[in-house]
């Protein structure tokens, strides 16, 4: 009985993050490919459709709609819709700025009310002390605010093609590298959980 429970708990853990990664990357890759062939407006329409498909797939996969993908999808539809309706690509370029600024303000602002929103993202991956969660919240909050500023600088000062390259091939590696850089902090403040057999 114990062995079957452990095997059930062991399988979904790596699969779900992998599927979430593919769900995030799929719309971005489609956006890039569509832009290269058809331009920014067709790419925006394809991106909007792909985000909706990814949201539906995520619901089918996990039987629930996660807040972050839902909020991202709403922003894509709003800013993408404005881009297509007004024929102005400024709006789709501003979407990452709004998204990352919101995340940064939410994380840092939550600390003022003793709300550690970062837990909702990483609680299944590891458990930290209160101090660890607060430090991680500050770091991610400042990182997202910085990322919003970088996106603004790129789209305002460079070509649309350069911005698309940055959005697709720059932002995700930056997020990955930043997450990797937090490993020492996580290890320093991680709380080891004992199994039922050990306790």
Q: Can you describe what's shown?
A:
There is one protein chain. This protein is mainly α and 199 residues long. It has 2 domains: 1-87; 89-191. Helices cover 82% and strands 0% of the residues. It contains 9 helices and no strands. The longest helix has 28 residues, at 130-157.
Concise structural overview:
By secondary structure, this protein is mainly α.
Number of strands: 0
Large-scale geometry: globular
Radius of gyration: 19 Å
Mean residue pLDDT: 85
Helix/strand/pairing category: mainly alpha
What's the total helix number? 9
What does the main sheet amount to? none
- Overall tally of domains: 2
Q: Write the element-wise H/E pattern from the N-terminal end onward.
A: HHHHHHHHH
Q: Per DSSP, what share of the residues sits in E-state strands of 2 or more residues?
A: under 5%
Helical proportion, percent range: over 70%
- Uncertain spans, ≥5 residues at pLDDT below 50? 1-16, 194-199
Task: Compute the separation of the termini in Å.
Answer: 18 Å
